[in-house]
């Protein structure tokens, strides 16, 4: 992969990644080829291949971008967790943000579901989810203060509740499964 050396090159590369993020999220990775991404991003195929050797390399860049958007979309709430009330505020932001889409509908989860059998991409997806889990665990460690907790385990439970809640919310057309799954976590944290 060639890194852009100019502002114009960075803008072109970003436009390609942003277009791929949107298309992959709406229609799936396998439903979109590089030709469509070049057309939709208003770039030439030569530009696309200048920055990305193949589709797999572009997918890796999309995973990185989606992780960045998920983490940035949960700020400043996630970094502000200091007590149970701020923890609840972060959880509420996950639930309240769901109808708006964006980082709350979890483009990472969508990619994991679609690409989990791809041996080349599975480690990148795993690392992205672990990065998110680690960010949550860091917030939980702050929340715990001097109390001993399994921050990594609790962060994993939160992600599992969130991902399962999102899946069921999509299937049922209701936020109740997401509220219930994350509400159970909040109740555990309060105890």
Summarize the helices and strands and which ones pair or pack.
Elements: H1 7-27, H2 34-40, H3 45-51, H4 55-73, H5 84-97, H6 107-115, H7 122-144, H8 151-172, H9 176-190
Helix pairs in contact: 1-4, 4-7, 5-9, 6-7, 7-8, 8-9
What does this structure look like?
This protein has helices spanning 7-27, 34-40, 45-51, 55-73, 84-97, 107-115, 122-144, 151-172, 176-190. With 191 residues, it is an all-alpha fold. The N and C termini lie far apart (49 Å). It has two domains: 1-53, Homeodomain-like (Arc Repressor Mutant, subunit A); 62-190, Tetracycline Repressor, domain 2 (Orthogonal Bundle).
The largest β sheet comes out as: none
Named CATH architecture of the largest domain: Orthogonal Bundle
User: What name goes with the CATH superfamily of the largest domain?
Assistant: Tetracycline Repressor, domain 2
**Secondary-structure element order, N to C:** HHHHHHHHH
Q: Helical percent range? A: over 70%
Low-pLDDT stretches: none
Question: What is the number of strand segments?
Answer: 0
Per DSSP, the total helix count is 9
Distance between the termini: 49 Å
Query: What fraction of residues sit in β-strands?
Result: under 5%
Structure class: mainly alpha
What's the CATH first level of the largest domain? Mainly Alpha
General form: elongated
Mean pLDDT: 89
Classify the fold: give the CATH topology of the largest domain: Tetracycline Repressor, domain 2
Oligomer: single chain
